[in-house]
Each structure stands twice: as C-alpha cells, then as structure tokens.
Amino acid sequence: MPVSPFRPIPIPPHHEPENVGEVWRVPYQERAAEAKFWAMEHGITPSSTDSTRLCLIVIDVQNTFCIPGFELFVAGRSGNGAVDDNRRLCQFIYRNLAAITHITATLDTHHAMQIFHSIFLVNDQGEHPQPMSLISEQDIFSGRWKFNTEIADSLGISAEYGQEYLFHYTHQLSERKKYELTVWPYHVMLGSIGHALVSAVEEAIFFHGIARSSWTDFEVKGDNPLTEHYSAVGPEVLEGPDGRPVGQKNKRFLQKLLEFDRVVITGQAKSHCVAWTIDDLLNDILLYDPQLVKKVYLLNDCSSAVVVPGVVDYTDEAEAAFRKFAAAGMHIINAMDDIDSWPG
What we know:
By secondary structure, the protein is of the alpha/beta class. Helices cover 33% and strands 12% of the residues. The protein has ten helices and twelve strands. The strands form four sheets. A six-stranded parallel beta sheet has the order 7-2-1-8-9-12, sandwiched between helices. It is globular, with a radius of gyration of 21 Å. The relative contact order is 0.17.
C-alpha cells in the first residue's frame, strides 16, 4: 500500500552520515537495485502520481565548497559548516523521499581565465592579486589593478576592450549594490574532482531518481569568463560597456514555481550563491505574480555562509538576506521539520 507522501520514512541502511565529508565512488548499480526495493517495501509511488508536487533545488553542493581541504570549503562560523549541512540535507532527501517530486542541482563551473581568478588582473609590477582580494571600482579607476592583456587573445577580445570592460564591470557591481569583485582561489574547475557533487549527496539524489522514477535536472552556471555568476537565475552583469549581452537570465527557475506546488531551496554558500539565487528569484516573482512567493521554502540549516577567519565573514549578510526573504513571504524551514508542520 502507498504511504502518505508527507510521512517521513526511514533512512536507507547504505547511508553512512560519518562519510558525508569524504569523496568516494557511488556504486550506481547497487543503489539502483536497492532504490527499487526500497520504493516497493515502503509503498513509494512514482513521482508522476504526486498530487502535491514538490521541487528541491540544491545549489552548488560540490566538493570544492563542501569537503574540508578543498579550495573554497564553506566552513561557516562553526568551522564544519558544509559537512554538517550536507549530513542534514541527505537526511532530508531520504526522510522525504516519497514527498519530493523532482530535484534540480546547480553546478558552479569555472575555467582558469575568468574575471574572478587571479590571472585576469595584473598590476604595474606584473603581479596578480592574491585569492580573497576585494577589487573595488576605485582600484580599477586608479590603475592599481588592470586587465591582464596577455589573456586577451584567448578570450577573443582586444586589450583595450578588456580594460574598458573592467571599468564598466566594477562600476556595475557598485551601482547595483552587489559584492565587490572578489578574487577567488581557482575552484570548481570543469573536469576536476572539485567540480563534482559531494558523493553522499550525489548518492541521495541518484537514489531518489530511481526510487521515484524522477528525472534529475543539472543546471550548469558560472562558465562565462566576463562575469561572476553567484545566482543560478542570472550572472552579476548582463551587458558589456557597448550594450552587447554578456549573459542572460535563466527563466527556468521561475518556471518551476509555475509547475510545482512547493519549491525548496538550499545549498552553498548561504551568503553568496544561495542568497543571490533567492534574491533574483524574489525579484522575478514580484514582477510576475507576488502570490508565488508563498510557494518558496528555504531549507535554513543546510546552508552556511562564507567565513575565512581573520579575512572575511559573511554570516551577518547571509542572515540579513534570509530575514528579508522571510519578510517577503517565503517560509524558513529546517531539515527535520515534518512536511505536515510546514507553514502555508
């Protein structure tokens, strides 16, 4: 007999919470067979039968951000943020296997020559900025940092355009009240181990897809060399100084609000890619249909802010953003909350 989709079900025996902070190979064939058996044993029906359709959006839960020792581990103030977050996220997916209709996972995807990597900028001494440097509009206008003309040919632009673009880009960030251009360590490089989903989360998503006969979406973002791309909805800057498009918005996220009854959002980092995705989505909602805001649920305890002790701490900005989203009508939930108890 099918169970109520909103009743939590047990965590399958293959899941080992202590391994969430490690990288390993998912045994797909074994998990597929187990998922089919698990669905039969617990009366879990195909996602196509759901009367209440729930979409889980998992933002950038990749090794680079979530495994200690990788390039940009999101430690939060606890020092173990993303590992603890993903332990709860896996539990959320398994406990609510029968209720989650569909999962979308975004993948931050980078190359070496991008505006937020050291090689893009250079000073008069031929030095590149160190990772975690903040580049202001004034830094570019004063000539403290300039476009690295050596990469112009590889990017298919002129040296003159590269410098003009840097002026334009940092001004746009300032004007739109975005974070200053941050020089990040080289991270989530396409094809690297860091680019892959966290093994335990990948396993949970795969298990869900087989158990529910549900297609998983993977949204690639961030591979445009001329703009940061924190938000899964769109890049930080959309046009160059000449008015030509640099990137475009991803309208599929708003479409999910039209297709599903509830949309749950979580991932890394709470202060950056998660916050900016939700902020962009909120702006689209308010333009399209403000009532859609009630469909959005933010999985609060499965995200952490970027914190580098003694360098940066974005926790306060992350919490302020979530307060803003809640005030707009979005719902804040935690991983162990029963769906029946969710507001709205």
